[in-house]
Amino acid sequence: MSNEKPLFIVDAMLGKLAKKLRLLGYDSLYSSSIEDDELLHIAKNENRVIITKDLQLIHKAKKHQIASIQITKNEEIEQFLQINEKIDLGKCIISGSNSRCPICNGELKYTEKNDISEKVPTGVFENMNDFWTCNKCGKVYWEGTHIKNLQKFNAELNDRLSS
Ligand SMILES: [Zn+2]
Fold this sequence. Notes:
Elements: E1 8-10, H1 15-23, E2 28-30, H2 36-46, E3 49-52, H3 55-63, E4 68-70, H4 76-86, E5 108-111, H5 122-127, E6 131-134, E7 140-142, H6 145-162
Parallel strand pairs: 1-2, 1-3, 3-4
Antiparallel strand pairs: 5-6, 6-7
Helix pairs in contact: 4-6
Bound molecules: zinc ion.
């Protein structure tokens, strides 16, 4: 297997998992309204691994020789471990420079504080120093409490991945 990061396409039922994958830095397409045929088409064209709970979709993917991973678990960490059984995720990192936008899958770029003064609440602006902006949708991110919760998830995940 190459060292390049895998690309994913996540089926409509797994929106939360898609967001987590993006935050952990994996390029993951997701739409809540995508049809199977379109999903298969994109996966084939862009060399993306399909992640789904839908056994029928898994069968279709196999028929078209597209890599796919079937998710059977409901808990997020368990779902990540299922992905890792098929594709080595390595060590997962959550940081502004590694994560992708959870909303649109765009890349985040480090942004000068003064450039975003009007886009974040005053309290955040005064207390935080590091900001990232999504290059696609323009949303601004910073290391607030939600990142702390994610880091906890991330630490537990890495623990499970290496055990
Ligand atoms: Zn975005």
